[in-house]
Amino acid sequence: MSRELAGRVFLAALVLLLLNCGRSEHEPDEIYYLVSTNIKLPYWQTAANGLLTAAAQLRVKAEMVGPDTYDPKGERDAFERILAGKPTGILVSAADPVVVTPAIDAAIARGVPVITIDSDAPGSKRLMFIGTDNREAGRTAGRIAVKALGGKGSVLFFTMPEQTNLKERLNGYLDAFSNSSDIHVAEIVDIKGDARVAFDRTMDLVERGSHAVDAFLCLEASACAEVAEVLSRKYVKNKVVIAMDTDPRTLEWIQKGVIAATLAQKPYTMAFYGLKNLDDLHHHKPASLQGKFPKDSRSPIPVYVNTGATLIDKSNVEAFLQAENEAKK
Q1: Residue 16: per-residue pLDDT
Q2: First to last CA, the chain
Q3: Comparing 27 with 103, which gets the higher pLDDT?
Q4: Which fold would CATH assign to domain 31-132+266-308?
Q5: For position 37, what pLDDT does the model report?
Q6: How far apart are CA 28 and CA 133, in angstroms?
Q7: Among 26-30, 155-159, 213-217, 225-229, which is the least confidently predicted range?
Q8: For residue range 291-313, what is the model confidence (pLDDT) as tens digits?
Q9: What is the domain class of 134-264 according to CATH?
């Protein structure tokens, strides 16, 4: 073979190699979904940002679906609607694990990978959970409450009892209170996904002149801003208020000194990392999605990925807001 011909063959092979390297392994019809409730909340809009950023990097389609209100059955219906199509993979935050578990199991049976984020459905066949160590988050917040109360007082929780993540946070708080016999739980209020319940209950306590509650502890994102609103309007001082997540109003009330602290989760990370894992599972699918992965010492899938949480109080809220603003530029 002449040098000239050999050179042409080499160049042709190089061009083919480069073309193959640039070719995406993704198909045009690949589409991933994130299913939740209350999807208009800032928390879930942050998650949607993580979802769409990962989708753009992978050059796939992604969409967040679910009811605008706290509606576990509406979430299940949204899940079942997308499953009736051809979803490539599904992320879901289980508002009520009992309600959504049959839909998750049906997806796995059809070969559609499902990962839970934020709130788990541990009794389902979901492949893994990505989110906060919620019990530890509760312990962290509980230790803050114990210190702020001086080890004694009565507390009220605002929560949604069916959510796995909120149950774990409550248990974490109770762990933190276990060595403080003078801290008592006065009430656990189910807000049913409606922060106005927290506003009304706090207003009722304040207007009745009740001194039965020394601390208001919120296990989800929206309630404590409503508590702070009532306490501010009524000029009530010396109440401990500890929130969850980084709703803009929550951060404003921390700046004003009404809310003592909050724990910032990473919904962006949950959705971003979740989509990347779904994509990998689609393109490198195990022989069966119904394997006993939790008990398999060589499992390619972890049971749980901890995305972490950050304590925010008046000492670091400004730095947190500055970092958030810079990230949006």
Answers
A1: 47
A2: 57
A3: 103
A4: Rossmann fold (3.40.50)
A5: 96
A6: 36
A7: 26-30
A8: 788 888 888 899 999 999 999 99
A9: alpha beta
Phi and psi at residue 306, in whole multiples of 5°?
-90, 115
CA distance linking residue 145 with residue 171, whole number of Å: 14
CATH 3.40.50.2300 occupies which residues in the chain?
A: 31-132+266-308, 134-264
User: What integer pLDDT is reported at residue 11 of this predicted model?
Assistant: 54
CA neighbor of 115 nearest in space, from 124, 132, 127, 99: 127
> To which H or E segment does residue 202 belong?
helix 195-207
Round to whole Å and give the CA distance between 141 and 137: 6
- On whether the CB atoms of residues 311 and 263 are closer than 8 A, the answer is yes
User: Could you read off the pLDDT of 171-191 as tens digits, one per residue?
Assistant: 999 999 999 999 999 999 999
Q: Name the amino acid, one letter, at 41.
A: L
Rounded to 5 degrees, φ, ψ at 210 are -75, 135
User: 3-class secondary structure for 191-259?
Assistant: CCCCHHHHHHHHHHHHHCCCCCCCEEEECCCCHHHHHHHHHHHCCCCCCEEECCCCCHHHHHHHHCCCC
How does strand 261-264 pair with strand 310-313? antiparallel
